[in-house]
Amino acid sequence: MPYKFLFFDLDHTLLDFNGAEDTALTSFLEEAGVAPKDIKTYKDYYIPMNRAMWEDLNHGLITKAELLRTRFSRLFEHFGREVDGAYLAERYQEFLSQQGQELPQAHAFIAEVKSRGYKIYAATNGVSYIQRGRLQASSLLPFFDAVFISDEVGEHKPSKDFFDKIAAHIPNFDPKAALMIGDSLTADIQGANNAGIDSIWFNPKGLANETPAVPTYQVKNYQGILNILSN
After folding, report:
1. What would the CATH number be for the domain defined by 17-96?
2. Where residue 58 falls among pLDDT bands split at 50, 70, 90?
3. Which of 11, 16, 183, 188 is an active site residue?
4. Hey, what's the torsion of the CAs at 172, 178, 181, 186, to 10 degrees?
5. CB 157 within 8 A of CB 123
6. CA dist 230 to 72, 74, 107, 150, 178, Å?
């Protein structure tokens, strides 16, 4: 059956999270009083720590509230400073919500997909006002028929419940005609496996799959996705 309903992850798939994070962290750390010469050192510690915490969330080891509440306390504690982690989390989220950087060719790609008549949905984990703010700051928002964010859905990828809940909001939804497209094996591809829908692993760096997740397809670029949709 031809695909009709396309679910897109946002970060590292359409939006440039690395660029957004770098810009937001610089502004945030400057406001928090970190000396310019030390900002890179703070970033080098924070970025892998934050990635690891999101992986822990994907595996159910921590809650999103715990992640958001503690990550900056852990960062500054590492450098010998005691801070109000909850307040700093709010400040960082405000900076991040303003960042709309897109991956190269993302706009042209999603415009082409839309022109082919597909129903296009954002299916993303994250904080609602951050993800909506970033989409609004980008040029991509008008292409989506709907935006589904874990904060609003009440479940997060890779939970089957996440996909079940968003499917309930899509008229005439058919899982056999659905396709999840994303860069994360543990969230996007495992989520698609759990939901019983096909998936494309967007893997520009050619990483090895060392997880139980099984993508239906694997591509290195947007043209690879367009080729699959053309078949």
Report:
1. 1.10.150.240
2. confident
3. 11
4. 100
5. yes
6. 45, 47, 19, 30, 15
Q: For domain 5-16+101-230, give the CATH number.
A: 3.40.50.1000
Domain ranges of the chain: 5-16+101-230, 17-96
179 and 119 Cβ atoms separated by less than 8 Å: no
Read off φ and ψ for residue 182, nearest 5 degrees. Answer: -170, 170
Check for a shared fold between 5-16+101-230 and 17-96: no
pLDDT at 135 over 90: yes
Q: What share of the chain is helix, strand, coil (3-state, %, to 5)?
A: 55, 15, 35
**Which residue is associated with the tokens 């494309």?**
200
Residue ranges of alpha helices (H) inside the chain are 17-31, 39-58, 64-78, 85-96, 106-115, 128-137, 150-153, 160-167, 190-195, 222-230
Question: Are the CB atoms for 231 and 212 separated by under 8 Å?
Answer: no
Indicate whether 1 pLDDT > 70.
no
pTM: 0.90
pLDDT at 63: 92
- Clarify whether 9 is annotated catalytic: yes
Question: Given the structure tokens 């510690």, which residue do they identify?
Answer: 45
Q: Are 152 and 146 in contact (CB under 8 A)?
A: no
